[in-house]
Amino acid sequence: MKSKGIHCSSFLKINRMFFASLLWFFLAGFPLSAQVKQALEEPAKGNSGRWTLVIHGGAGGPARGTMTNEREKDYLDKLNEALQLGSKILANGGNSLDAVETVVNFLEDCPLFNAGRGAVLNENGKAELDAAIMDGRTGMAGAVAGVTTIKNPVTAARAVMEKTSHVMLVGKGAEEFAENQGLQPVDPSYFITPERLDSWEKWKAKATPGKNSTPAEKEKSGTVGAVALDLKGNLAAATSTGGMTGKMVGRVGDSPIIGAGTYAKNNTCAVSATGHGEYFIRNVVAYDLSALMEYLGMPVAEAGKRIIMEKLGQQKAAGGLIAVDKDGNIAMPFNTNAMFRGFAKSTGEHEAAIY
Q: Model's pTM, two decimal places?
């Protein structure tokens, strides 16, 4: 005969429902923070204590043996510093958005890379900056493009994502918004370094008056970016760039375009791209990688290789990307001489590399 009593599991389930209802009733009269609301409304995902961070400082540029040992060490040291900053946030339970923004801020402030201070200059000798950030948990994204006075464009991009109903702001509008948000404005001269000015002057000497010249191959890249998986299983991506030396005024590359140079989705991956942006836009590279994973079940490394080495390779498009999937697997393919890059994992694995 079947028992007419209440099973223990059923009793516990009823009790849980009762106490949850009681808690909501008790808290109904009190204002709740967004964090508390989220914790009550959403089940904790968890990620078995795993986190992963991948960064890049641009693809293209110097062939092996063309930089001095001291110069190579400078780049590797800065990549390692960036990894340490992001790793500390993730290891302490911080979220992936904070990690990628912090890393990209650091790279924007470092004059070695083509983003923020040290960005390359357009045809008029001015730095025009682009950046984007995306939250893989919510699908929200923010971007700025063609800005000339925002010290850290990626932070402005995050403000667009969190403080407006838009995805991208450009030029003066983006600059005014950033200043209204309390972000530090700088004079456009802040971004110009002697090295970038020298590169621009060499480009200018070869440029045809009245005609936009194609930048040298080694200047068709740059960009900095970071992707991360945090302890809660949330993914995020961020990218920032100065574009290409000698680019037309107003030119926007792939970095701030969601799905082209930046993308994140929790059930697939987070991506930040670097290279000749026009090709990355036409091929919707960052989203394409996610789609290959979602619709074909392709592993992140295989998807990255197919896009960079095969698809873009066939189009003679130079560049690379970094990506991390929901399980912490990574990809860092590039078809250029070099790609400044690195990764760190909660397992203790760590690497910074150029070639």
A: 0.85
